[in-house]
Amino acid sequence: MIQTRARSSRGGFTLVELMFVITIIGLLVKFAAPYVQNVRTGADASAVMADLNTIRLAGFDYLVEHGEFPRSGPLGAPPPSLADRLPAGFEFQYKDARYMWLSSRWRGSEIYAGPLVWGPPELVDQVAKLSSNEKIRARGICWFVYTN
Question: What is the pTM of this model?
Answer without folding.
Answer: 0.77
